[in-house]
Design a protein that fits this description.
- By secondary structure, this protein is of the alpha+beta class.
- The chain folds into two domains: about 35 residues; about 110 residues, no CATH class.
- About 55% of the residues lie in helices and about 15% in strands.
- The radius of gyration is 26 Å and the shape is elongated.
- It starts with a helix and ends with a helix.
Length: about 150
């Protein structure tokens, strides 16, 4: 082989080894500092924030299926599958249409014995979702004059 070809092969191998070393060290640092989970959390909260209807991103992270992905209470999941994200978001939006009626059960003297709660909800989760989407307020596009008001 020519000397020039050997130099190019050595440089390519050296570049590959150094880039692999940098990549491994960055992945280790990101894992130790939980950067991926924090970035995913901030991105979803920012993306799903709606000034007229509330913060669906924060509500999404309180969903039981998303909360189960956490290793402990101080970490955020680093990955949420598309199916899990869709199911949790539809469920979070739909749960806002659930109405709860409370009945206070009292004795003859008027002392409170117990409180019974009755949930009024549609049996189909997709119907929940449709009901809540129908109740949502209009949100103008970001950057428009109405959005800034």
């Amino acid at each position: 082989m020519s000397t020039t070809l050997q130099v190019f092969i050595c440089l390519a191998l050296l570049y590959f080894l150094l880039s692999t070393l940098v990549s491994i060290s960055f992945e280790w640092y990101a894992h130790k500092t939980q950067q991926r989970g924090k970035l995913l959390y901030r991105s979803l909260v920012d993306m799903l924030y709606d000034p007229a209807n509330g913060s669906y991103g924060a509500f999404l992270y309180s969903h039981t299926q998303i909360a189960r992905l956490k290793k402990d209470k101080d970490t955020y999941p680093q990955y949420i599958s598309g199916v899990l994200f869709a199911v949790a978001l539809v469920d979070c939006i739909g749960q806002q249409s659930v109405e709860v009626n409370y009945t206070h059960i009292r004795d003859e003297q008027g002392n409170l014995l117990r409180v019974e709660a009755e949930e009024i909800r549609e049996s189909d989760p997709f119907k929940h979702f449709q009901l809540e989407v129908g109740k949502m307020k209009y949100s103008p596009p970001e950057g428009s004059a109405a959005y800034l008001l």
